[in-house]
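Here we describe the complex-level prediction in full. Unlike the single-chain runs in Section 2.1, the three entities below were treated as one system.
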Amino acid sequence: MPFISNTKEQQRDMLAEIGLTMDKLFSDIPKDLRAGEFNLPKGLTEHQVRDALAEIAGKNYINLTCFLGGGFYDHFIPAAVYAIISRSEFYTAYTPYQPELSQGTLQAIYEYQSAICRLTEMEAANASLYDGGTAIYEAVMMALRITGRNKVIIDDSVNPIYRVMIDSYTKNLSIQLEQVNCVDGQANRDEIYKKLDDDTAAVILQNPNFFGCVDDFSDIAEAAHKKGALLIVSCYPVSLGILKTPGAMGADIVTGEGQSLGMPMSFGGPYLGFMATKMKYIRKMPGRIVGQTKDKLDRRSFVLTLQAREQHIRRDKATSNICSNEALCALTALVYMSLLGKEGLKETAQLCADKASYAYHKLTAIPGVKAHFKQKWFFNEFVLDLPCEAADVIARLIEKGFAAGFPLSRYYKNMEKSILICVTEKRTKQQIGMLAESLEACL
Amino acid sequence: MVIEGLYYTEEHEWAKIEGDVATIGITDHAQELLGEITFVELPMVNKEVVQKGELGVVESSKAASDVYSPVAGKITKVNSELESAPEKINEDCYNAGWICTIKITDKSTIDNLMSSKQYEAYLKSM
Amino acid sequence: MKLLFEKSVKGRRAIQVDNSDVPTTININSDFLRKNSAELPELSELDVVRHFTALSRMNFGVDTNFYPLGSCTMKYNPKVCERIASYPGFAHLHPLLPQLRMGGMLTQGALQVLYDMDIFLREITGMAGFTLQPMAGAHGELTGIMIMAAYHRNKGNKKTTVLVPDSAHGTNPASAAIAGYKVVVVPSDDNGIMDIKALKKLINNEVAGLMLTCPNTLGLFNSHIKEICDLIHSVDGLAYYDGANLNAIVGKARPGDFGFDIVHINLHKTFATPHGGGGPGSGPVGVNEKLVDFLPVSVVVKRDDGTYALEYNRPKSIGYIAPFYGNFAIILRAYVYILMLGKEGLGKVAENAVLNANYILAKLKKHYKAASENICKHECVFSPTDEMLQNGVHALDVAKSLIDRGFHPPTVYFPTIVKEALMIEPTETESKETIDEFIDAMIEIAEIAKTEPEKIKQSPITTPVCRPDETAAAKNLDISFHI
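The structure predicted for the assembly as a whole is:
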């Protein structure tokens, strides 16, 4: 039998030691509750299963040239990332409850927290959350706890996938969610200030936003703070290689999807939610946190800290029900950031921006293709208006070998002709040229 | 250790009543259960609390416990020294480890509290 | 050991970023740019690889040695699952592809995996439908409670409380509270089993549901489980099965047959996906017929022509709880594991897990105080004997002493209803020899505790650090490196 070590003889010896039969070991389960035969396939050997799965994998189209982003990006991943995270001392370990046996995981998480703080220019980060969407939800809950208020203002340029998640999670709670619509790709100050009042717990914004546009929310942070509200900013970590940081803008809670930091797209996960805040809010932050301390012999040591906030101690009064993090994904992000380093991350971000800018000019030169927004400050994604339905054009471009972008009509009204195009550092000038040619040909 | 003359709750808070002002803290038994205290979350001054309403949280590295108000009233002072020196609760829970003072709005709430004798008996019965 | 940041050398580089093949055009106003580069370390690839190799050697995983951490099911993680998860056909698949027109046809392989997995899990648990989206067990719990709330809202039921036994994992009350319910604790009887008399007293129309692990955290199966589910149903409450301990019964019995309405499964426990040092996990949620409509958006369906598609139009659904389809690469690993076990292998899982646990119980009950001497399921719980405790040897000391003998300690101080608990879960993948070595180590510790307790209390001495000061860590918070 696969993955079972005891031989028949050993099983017999062990039963003799216990003094019971195998059937007796299950006698506490009433007879009428025991299962009959299972309708499952016969077991496969390793050889068979690898062949079977190779065939299934072959049904997925991965050879399209990818201009699809929307918060999930096709970045280059150095080979050393996979080599390091494949060390089984990391991936076959549990949550680091025994610090003596987990200094590897614990130090790595401490370093990860430090790297996230440096990237976002915030004071304190947790050991990670599930993904960028649940991270915003946790940030909302945290803002409610800090302010004791229950109104939250959210801009419609925050990733629509995250906005529908927040809707689901807050359905049973008395939270007043107020949506504002961005104007020309920028946060709608007038609307936000109109809604901002003494009941407001937080304003949620994203940079670059879902349309790829960049902004500086410093003025909104100031206005929110005047009303005693917090600013939550969701961000794209690779963009922080060059973009103004949420910390510099005065954000109180920063979240984001960490997939772009060395994780493959893997059809939706596992990914990495990161979260950072100001030191004064640390006890209100959910999730695991690693701290540095000393051991009995005064040696540098790392431990899980502030555990008193967590579910296994606080039970129904915990800051969150989350009891794990995405430790291996946090490790992945850390390894990626250390391999790119200070200069490499900046160069990668610049390269993304340059290539996107090149693509933007190349594509807007096509007759009938126009930029959707007047303002032209974007990072590596931008919105174009086509002369016909975008979803249709995208379907035609798939036949030519391109995942050309995302049809915005899926989440936004009156955007049937708009396409969101993403360009990472992996796309070449030639690929961009070919996309432009193919697009022009199918309009 | 239980101090005579103070009032006590089943949740192991003590209250020292002077006129219409109550000084609040946690008992020796509570601090011993929690172990070395690492953090105290203090209430906001001027906040109104009901009897048994949440006042704050006392944390040790392995546990956390809510502090409930023994009386109904309005917070007048908090012991901000605990922010930097939470261990004062372990060292001297009935004096230097006080948490806050409350101006009592409903004196009848005092009647629900235990005397030192009753609290001692309560501890024994646990 | 030095931190990455302390090893940084100005000007050193690991990865060479491509030269740009396009002209640099200014497309971002300088007001929107950061003033200083992020202070990430500057290292060579060799520096980075050595740093993390050194860190990995300060870690202990299932691949290192026996890891009997109770309620965590630290079974062996087959390498073939890792290999398959890295197939480019899965790893390079963009999650938004199926949202493009006809895009579902581009991801038929991935959708097939999700569809088959749903069918497999239904069969294994006796439920009518699954969502694979929850990204961890606790996330599954929250999803399950949201489904519970949606059911009551839909029926117009005014329910306010969720019942949770005192032996429950801390995530249960936390999940219920976060979904907006008040938690009411049900006490255990002297045998550590939910007290059915106490339960009866707590049943009323306010009860939205009950969350239960079965077997419970003492490894005991509650023979009255069907009666308990019926009691909950009598007030139109829902019975929630916390699948943390499913490894005890998988292939032998099905929570759906017990009468449970909602089930969550930890793929990283029962279905052998690695724990990753604390995630990523995967916590699919299964429901019975009356709750299928409430499952999150989207659900994979099989069309008449044999192709797979994502169904989004689900008006009663609780909505979106994950950005896409769950932790796909984790689900994929569990799928491979189930394919390899097959129908004949499935029942052997619980048999050997239970055999190993009872063998430990039989061998150690003379040396430690067993929380229950009845047959257990997948795990058994002990405490140090009174003599050991009198000598000052506590559960934590036993744990630390096991470390010096090459084993990962059991879960300690949980469940909280047992004083000084040592909760041991061997899993089915361990051999008799390994378990015998562990038993010998436990007995040796018990003996030394009688004669030289100080020796035990000094443990561990073989690790890079020994009993770090957690109080100091919480008091003088240092959670990010500053120069």
